[in-house]
Write a structure and sequence with these properties.
1231 residues, 9-stranded antiparallel sheet, 48 helices, 27 strands
C-alpha cells in the first residue's frame, strides 16, 4: 500500500487496468514448449514479436486453481509491461483507454526511477546487438542509465540506424495514442525508450521494429520489470495508510476496507486486556459493530482450525506432545508435529469431563453398574486425546493395525516361510498360508503416532492398553524433563537432602516477598545501608562472619585493616541487593539451581544483614517458639519447619536456616545435582528443533554418549566435588551416608531406558558413518528374537524374553519386518528401497519435540494471558486463543501455524458453538475394544504395564538376551541363569569378578544383570588395616554385567575415604570379601518367593512349592549361617527391609511444604497448587487410595472398593448409580 496520494492513485489505476487486462490475457499469450509465454501477433500484417516472459508471470484463477491470488487473474511486472504494449493495437478499445495505459506505465517507471537505484539492477546497463541500416555492419549498443533514469546511449543513433533516428524525431513531433516523446536522443530516459519501442511495434511499415526495436525491446522489458519489482518491495516496507469509511446513500456503512482492519489489528497487537473495548475506540478505522471487533477470538479460532485441517490433511505420520492442566476445569492441550512438512500446530483444547453411561458399550455399562471397572480416569484421558486428534482426521482408531498385516509373535501352530522373496505365515493346523504383508499395504498410507507425555497413572494404562493389547501403531515416549526431576528428587531423599532444598527455597524467594509484592527487596537494601553506616570492618559482627564469607567466596581471609575495609565496602554492591534473581517455582525445578548460582558467595552476607546481629552458627531454636507440639517433640523435621514458618514468618525464619552446617549440606546437594541439571540445561539450550533432537538421539545411541551424564556424575562426585566440600565435614558419621550416594541410580536407569531400548537403540542408522553397521546389527538382533519367540511358542523357557515388552510394540515390529524384507530382496534397488524405509521410520520416531516442556510453557503462558484478560477464564475459545497466541512454540524456533492479520481481516464471522463441539470429548465415544481398558485385568484380559522400573528391566533383559544368543554354548545353565544378578547388591556397593580380575561399582541392578562402573586400585593408598582402596576410572567405563555362576563373584565391603586433604574420593575396603548370598543376608535379605526357590534349588535344598516366603528365608539362613545369634540378626535386618515404605507420605509432607512456600509468592491462589494440596489432604484423610507398592497393574492406582450400603430399597432413587460408582466415574456418570 502506498503512502502518498500520487502513488495511491496510480495503484488504483493499475488495479482497474489489471481487472480489464485479465480478460484479454489468454487471448494474447500462449505457452511455448520451453515453458515460456509468447505474445501473439495483433494483426496479420504485424511482424510476429520475439518477446518472451516466463509462465510464472501469469496467474490464472480458473476452476479448482490453487493459486494464492484469490482476487482474480493477475500478472507480474514483465508480463504487465508486455500487456500494456499490446493494448494500443486493440481496435475495440477507446483512445482514452490506450492513453491511460501508456500514462500509467510512464508514471510507474518515473516513480520507480525516483525511488530505486538503477545501478543495483544489471549495474544500470542494457545491451543489445543489431545491424546498421547505414553500412549493414553489426552494432553492439549499450545504454548506461543514470540514477534519474536518463541515458546518453542513443546519442549516436543517427549514425548507427537512420530509420530509428527519423522515427524518434517523428514521434517527438506528432503524438501517438495521445503521447509523444519528451526528450531528445542526446539524453533520453527509460519511459521514452519504452514508448518508442511500443510505437515501432505497432508501425511495422517503418521497418524500425524488425531491424532495431525487436532486439532492444526484450532487454528493456526485462530491465524495467526488475525495476518495478524492486519498487514494489520498497512500497511494501512503507507504513499502511487507512482509507476513509464510506456509506451508502441510505446512510448504511459500506464494507470496511481490508487495510483498515489490518491497521486496527496492528494497533492492538500488544493489547492483552479488553481488546474488544480498545478496538471500539478506533472509530476512524472501522465501525464498532463489525465482526472483527465483536468476535475476534471466534474469527481467529475458526481460521486456525482451517489452517490446522489444511496443514495436516494428508498427514499419516504424526507426533503429538500433550499434557493436561487445570484452568477452570481439567484441560488437555496437545501440539501436533509433522516431521515431513516441518510444521506444528495446537490441536483443539479438550475440556475433560466425566464419562457418561450413555457412551459405554452395553457389556462395559453392565460392569460399571456392578462396580467392576477401574482405570476410568485413564480411559477419560485417552478419549479426550483421541477427540483432539480427530480434528486432523486421525483419531486413535485410525492407528489400529490392519487385520491382514501379520506382525505379532508366532503361535505354536504357525511358521514363517520365505517364498520368492516374500514372507508368508503358514498355519500347520488349518493348512492355510497368508502373506505377512498384504500386497495393497503401503507405509506411506499407514497412520503412525508418536505420543510424548508424562509417565503418570492417567496416561500409562491407556497407552499400554493401546500398544500392547490392541497392538495399535502407537509408540509412547515419556517426558525426560519430568523423569530428570523425579530421579534427582529420589536421590536427594535417599541422602536426606530434600529438607535442605525446601529450607533454602525460602531464602531464595525472599526478594519476591511478601506475597509477591517484592517489598522485602527494598527492605534488604535498607538493612544493608544501615549496617554499612552503623557497623565497621573491625566490628564484632563482621569479624564473626568474615571467615565464612571468605570461605564461601573462595577468598583468603584479610590480614590487614585495608583488606578488611575493602571486603566490608562490597556490602552494598551485592548482586542479591541489585537484582531480584530467579524465582523457585513448582513447575521449574531447575530454578532452584539457578537461584543457587545467583546467591553463590552471598548466603552468609544475607544472613549477616537480616539476621539482626545473630552469630553465624545460630540456627532454629525450637524452645524459643512456645508451641506445645514443638516443645513435646511430637513433630518430625518437615512438620516442625512448616510450623516454624507459620509461627515466625519467612523474614525471621530465613536467616536462621543458613548455618555453616546447612550451607555445607546445600553445597553438597548442588554438587551432586550439578551434572544432572547442567546436562538438562545444555540440552534445553542447544536442542530446540526436532531435527537437532533426532541427531542427538542418533549420536548417543550409536556410542557411549548415552552415559555422558552418568560420567559427569561420577567425575564430579569423586574428583571435582571434593575439592570444595572436603575435608571440612567428611569425618562425621552422619555425613558418610550422604557421601556414599555419589551417583543417581535412577538416572542410570532412565538414561539407559531411553537410549538402549528399541527403536532408539538403532538410531545410529540415521548417521551415514554408522548406518551399515547398525542395520546389520539390527537384523542379527531381530533374527535372535524371532528364534527365541519360536522356541517360547514351542514351550521352551525364555524368561528374559517375557520382560522385553518393546518387541510387542507394532511400530518396533514393523521397523524390523521391513529390515528383514531388505535382506531377502531380489535386487539391489529393492534392497536399498527397503533400507530407506527403515531409515525413514527411525527418522520419524526420533524427530519430535523431545518432551512436554513446550506444552507446560503453553499452560503457563495461557494461564497468565487468561488471568490478565479476566473475562475469558471459562471460555473454550478463549483458552484456545491464549494457547495459539503464546510464544511457546516460536521461542523454540519450530515452524508453527499462525493466523495472520490478513486472514483475520478477510475472515467471515462464525459461531463459537462450531468450535465448542471440537472441545467436547463426550461427543467422541471410543469403540468397545478401547473401553475394555476399564475392565479388571484377568488371565485372559491382560497386558504389560510400563513403569520406570519395568523399562529398566527391559533394558537389562535385552542386554542379557542378546549376549546369550550370540554364544549359547558359553552359558550352559541356559537363558534364565542370569537371574543371579539380583544378588549383586544395591547401588553404591562394590563387587568383583575373580575370573576376569575386575572390580566395579554397582550403579543399578536389574533382574538379569546390572550396570556398573569399572574401578582401579588407588595407587599409593592403603587403609589403616592394610587393605586396598579403589577409585573409578576417569574415562567412560560403564558396562553391563550378568552373573550366571556365583563362584566367580564376591562382594567387597567399602566405605568412602579421601586420598588427600581435598580428595579425590576413594572407596576403602573395610573387611574381607564375601560371597554374594552371604553379603545379601548381612545387608537384609529381600528376595521374592521365586528367587528364593531358585536359590535353594541351585544349592539342592529341598522345599515345598507352596512354602511361605518366611519359611524359604529360614531355609536360606540355615544354609549360610551357623549360630542362632547370626540368624536372629539376619531376621531383624530382613524385617526392616520388608517394612512398607513411607515414601509416599513423606513425599506428601515435603511437597506440601514446598507448596506452602510457593503459595505466598506471586502465584498465590494458583489452581494447580490448590489441587495438589487438596490431593495431599484427601490422601491423609483416607478419602482416596494411596498407590500401593505392587498391584495387578504394576503400580497403577486401584481404588479400594467400598462396602455395600444396606439401605432399604424404598430409600434408593430409581435410575441412579450406587455411590461407589461416583468414586470411579465422577459426578457426570449418570444412568
Amino acid at each position: 500500500m502506498c503512502s502518498s496520494r500520487e502513488t495511491t492513485r496510480s495503484s488504483r489505476l493499475s488495479w482497474r487496468a489489471l481487472k480489464f487486462l485479465s480478460r484479454i490475457t489468454l487471448a494474447y499469450f500462449s505457452v511455448g514448449a520451453s515453458g515460456f509465454v509468447k505474445s501473439l501477433p495483433i494483426r496479420k500484417q504485424c511482424y510476429a514479436p520475439q518477446s518472451k516472459v516466463p509462465l510464472s508471470q501469469l496467474h490464472y484463477r480458473g476452476a479448482g486453481s490453487e493459486d494464492p491470488h484469490k482476487a482474480g487473474h493477475t500478472v507480474e511486472t514483465r508480463a504487465l509491461l508486455v500487456l500494456f504494449g499490446l493494448l494500443p493495437g486493440r481496435r475495440k478499445l477507446q483512445p482514452e483507454t490506450k492513453t491511460k495505459s501508456l500514462v500509467l506505465v510512464e508514471e510507474m517507471l518515473r516513480q520507480a526511477c525516483a525511488k530505486i537505484a538503477l545501478s543495483g539492477i544489471q549495474r544500470g546497463r542494457v545491451s543489445c546487438n543489431f545491424v546498421s541500416d547505414v553500412d549493414s555492419s553489426p552494432i553492439a549498443l549499450s545504454l548506461d542509465f543514470l540514477e534519474d533514469g536518463s541515458t546518453r546511449g542513443l546519442a549516436d543513433l543517427e549514425n548507427l540506424h537512420k530509420g530509428a533516428s527519423k522515427g524518434w524525431d517523428k514521434l517527438s513531433q506528432h503524438a501517438w495514442c495521445g503521447r509523444k516523446l519528451s526528450t531528445t536522443l542526446q539524453q533520453t530516459n527509460l519511459w521514452d525508450i519504452y514508448l518508442f519501442l511500443i510505437w515501432s511495434k505497432h508501425n511495422p511499415s517503418s521497418k524500425i521494429w524488425e531491424q532495431f526495436s525487436v532486439h532492444l525491446y526484450p532487454k528493456v522489458v526485462f530491465f524495467a520489470g526488475y525495476l518495478l519489482e524492486a519498487y514494489v518491495d520498497e512500497l511494501a516496507n512503507l507504513p499502511l495508510a487507512p482509507l476513509p469509511l464510506l456509506k451508502t446513500k441510505h446512510g448504511n456503512s459500506r464494507r470496511v476496507p481490508k487495510v483498515n482492519k489490518i491497521i486496527l489489528l496492528q494497533r492492538v497487537k500488544a493489547q492483552k486486556r479488553h481488546r474488544g473495548e480498545v478496538m471500539q475506540t478506533h472509530t476512524d478505522l472501522a465501525p464498532r459493530q463489525i465482526a472483527l471487533i465483536r468476535a475476534e477470538a471466534n474469527l481467529e479460532v475458526a481460521e486456525y482450525v482451517k489452517l490446522l485441517t489444511t496443514a495436516f490433511a494428508d498427514t499419516q505420520h504424526v507426533q503429538v506432545s500433550w499434557d493436561a492442566s487445570t484452568y477452570d476445569v481439567e484441560t488437555l492441550v496437545a501440539i501436533a508435529y509433522d516431521y515431513k512438512k516441518n510444521v506444528s500446530g495446537y490441536l483443539p483444547i479438550q475440556n475433560i469431563s466425566p464419562v457418561q453411561t450413555a457412551e459405554l458399550h452395553e457389556t462395559v455399562r453392565t460392569l460399571a453398574v456392578q462396580g467392576r471397572i477401574t482405570r476410568v480416569e485413564s480411559y477419560n484421558t485417552m478419549r479426550s486425546f483421541s477427540h483432539a486428534l480427530n480434528s486432523i482426521g486421525l483419531p486413535l482408531a485410525a492407528f489400529a493395525k490392519p487385520p491382514d498385516l501379520l506382525l505379532g509373535p508366532l503361535r505354536a501352530e504357525e511358521e514363517r516361510v520365505l517364498m520368492n522373496g516374500t514372507y508368508f505365515i503358514y498355519n500347520t493346523t488349518t493348512q492355510s498360508i497368508q502373506r505377512q504383508v498384504p500386497t495393497a499395504w503401503s507405509l506411506a498410507k499407514q497412520p503412525l503416532l508418536i505420543s510424548v507425555s508424562d509417565q503418570g497413572p492417567l496416561n500409562c494404562p491407556g497407552l499400554d492398553h493401546l500398544q500392547f493389547k490392541l497392538r495399535g501403531f502407537v509408540l509412547p515416549l515419556y517426558d525426560q524433563s519430568h523423569r530428570t526431576w523425579n530421579d534427582l528428587k529420589s536421590a536427594m531423599r535417599s541422602v536426606k537432602l530434600f529438607r535442605i532444598l525446601l529450607q533454602f527455597s525460602i531464602l531464595y524467594n525472599m526478594n519476591y516477598g511478601p506475597g509477591g509484592t517484592k517489598a522485602w527487596m527494598a527492605k534488604k537494601q535498607q538493612y544493608a545501608e544501615e549496617f554499612r553506616a552503623k557497623q565497621t570492618a573491625d566490628g564484632k559482627i563482621f569479624l564473626s562472619y568474615m571467615p565464612y564469607i571468605c570461605h564461601e567466596m573462595g577468598l583468603s581471609e584479610p590480614t590487614t585493616a585495608e583488606e578488611r575495609e575493602a571486603l566490608f565496602g562490597t556490602i552494598t554492591s551485592l548482586q542479591t541487593l541489585q537484582q531480584h534473581g530467579p524465582l523457585v517455582k513448582l513447575m521449574r525445578w531447575f530454578s532452584y539451581f539457578q537461584s543457587h548460582q545467583f546467591y553463590a558467595g552471598e548466603h552468609f552476607w544475607t544472613k549477616m544483614l537480616i539476621g539482626e546481629g545473630g552469630p553465624p552458627q545460630q540456627g532454629i531454636q525450637p524452645e524459643a517458639v512456645l508451641t506445645p507440639d514443638i516443645l513435646a517433640g511430637n513433630l518430625d523435621d518437615r512438620e516442625e519447619l512448616r510450623q516454624l514458618k507459620l509461627k515466625m514468618g519467612s523474614w525471621r525464619l530465613a536467616p536462621l536456616l543458613v548455618t555453616p552446617w546447612t550451607w555445607w549440606k546445600n553445597e553438597l546437594l548442588v554438587s551432586m545435582a550439578t551434572p544432572v541439571w547442567s546436562c538438562f540445561t545444555q540440552k534445553a539450550q542447544q536442542l530446540k528443533l526436532p531435527h537437532e533432537i533426532a541427531g542427538d538421539i542418533a549420536k548417543r545411541a550409536a556410542t557411549k554418549l548415552w552415559a555422558e551424564e552418568i560420567h559427569a556424575v561420577i567425575g564430579n562426585g569423586f574428583f571435582d566435588g571434593p575439592q570444595k566440600l572436603y575435608p571440612a565435614r567428611f569425618l562425621s558419621n552422619e555425613e558418610e551416608g550422604q557421601c556414599i550416594s555419589l551417583h543417581f541410580r535412577r538416572r542410570v536407569q532412565s538414561s539407559a531406558s531411553y537410549y538402549l531400548r528399541p527403536p532408539f537403540r538403532y538410531a545410529g542408522a540415521l548417521l551415514a558413518e554408522s548406518r551399515e553397521t547398525t542395520l546389520r546389527q539390527m537384523h542379527a538382533d531381530w533374527a535372535a528374537v524371532l528364534k527365541a519367540e519360536k522356541a517360547m511358542a514351542g514351550g521352551a523357557g525364555m524368561e528374559p524374553l517375557k520382560e522385553m515388552h518393546w518387541r510387542l510394540n507394532s511400530v518396533n515390529r514393523l521397523i524390523h519386518l521391513i529390515r528383514d524384507m531388505a535382506e531377502v530382496a531380489s535386487t539391489t534397488a529393492e534392497r536399498r528401497a527397503y533400507n530407506n524405509q527403515v531409515v525413514e521410520l527411525l527418522t520419524f520416531v526420533s524427530t519430535h519435540l523431545a518432551d512436554t516442556v513446550i506444552v507446560e510453557n503453553t499452560h503457563q503462558m495461557a494461564k497468565d494471558a487468561l488471568r490478565d484478560a479476566r473475562h475469558f477464564q471459562k471460555s473454550r475459545t478463549g483458552k484456545q486463543v491464549a494457547c495459539i497466541r503464546c510464544s511457546a512454540i516460536p521461542s523454540r524456533g519450530v515452524p508453527c501455524l499462525k493466523v495472520s492479520d490478513d486472514q483475520k481481516a478477510t475472515a467471515s464471522a462464525g459461531k463459537s458453538s462450531s468450535f465448542d463441539k471440537l472441545t467436547h470429548p463426550n461427543t467422541h465415544a471410543l469403540k468397545k475394544e478401547f473401553q475394555r481398558l476399564m475392565e479388571t485385568k484377568t488371565k485372559q484380559h491382560t497386558w504389560p504395564s510400563t513403569t520406570q522400573q519395568m523399562e529398566w528391566q527391559q533394558v537389562v533383559a535385552t542386554e542379557w538376551f542378546l549376549c546369550y544368543m550370540q554364544d549359547e554354548d558359553k552359558f550352559a545353565a541356559g537363558p534364565n541363569s542370569a537371574w543371579l544378578s539380583v544378588l549383586a547388591g544395591a547401588a553404591g556397593e562394590v563387587v568383583a569378578c575373580q575370573r576376569a580380575g575386575e572390580i566395579m561399582l554397582i550403579l543399578a541392578v536389574g533382574s538379569y544383570g546390572f550396570a556398573a562402573w569399572d574401578l582401579e586400585l588407588a595407587a599409593g593408598v592403603r587403609t589403616a588395616a592394610g587393605m586396598s582402596a579403589f577409585r573409578p576410572y576417569r574415562h567412560n567405563a560403564i558396562r553391563f554385567h550378568h552373573i550366571t555362576e556365583l563362584e566367580d563373584w564376591v562382594s567387597v565391603p567399602v566405605k568412602p575415604g579421601l586420598s588427600g586433604p581435598h580428595g579425590p574420593l576413594h572407596l576403602e575396603q573395610t573387611s574381607e570379601a564375601m560371597s554374594l548370598p552371604l553379603a545379601r543376608i548381612h545387608a537384609g535379605l529381600n528376595l521374592t518367593c521365586k528367587q528364593c526357590q531358585d536359590l535353594l534349588a541351585l544349592f539342592k535344598v529341598n522345599f515345598r512349592k507352596n512354602q511361605s516366603r518366611a519359611s524359604l528365608h529360614g531355609l536360606i539362613l540355615d544354609l549360610f549361617l551357623e549360630t542362632e545369634h547370626e540368624k536372629e540378626e539376619a531376621r531383624r535386618k530382613m524385617a526392616a527391609c520388608l517394612l512398607p515404605q513411607e515414601e509416599e507420605h513423606a513425599e506428601d509432607s515435603d511437597m506440601e511444604e514446598l507448596l506452602e512456600q510457593l503459595e505466598d509468592l506471586e502465584n498465590q491462589g494458583d489452581p494447580e497448587i490448590q489441587k495438589e494440596k487438596e490431593k495431599i489432604k484427601q490422601r491423609r484423610t483416607g478419602r482416596i487410595a494411596v498407590p500401593r507398592a505392587a498391584g495387578p497393574d504394576e503400580g497403577e492406582q486401584v481404588p479400594k472398593r467400598k462396602a455395600k450400603a444396606k439401605a432399604p430399597p424404598k430409600q434408593r432413587k430409581k435410575g441412579l448409580l450406587e455411590p461407589k460408582m461416583k468414586a470411579h466415574l465422577g459426578h457426570g456418570f449418570t444412568g
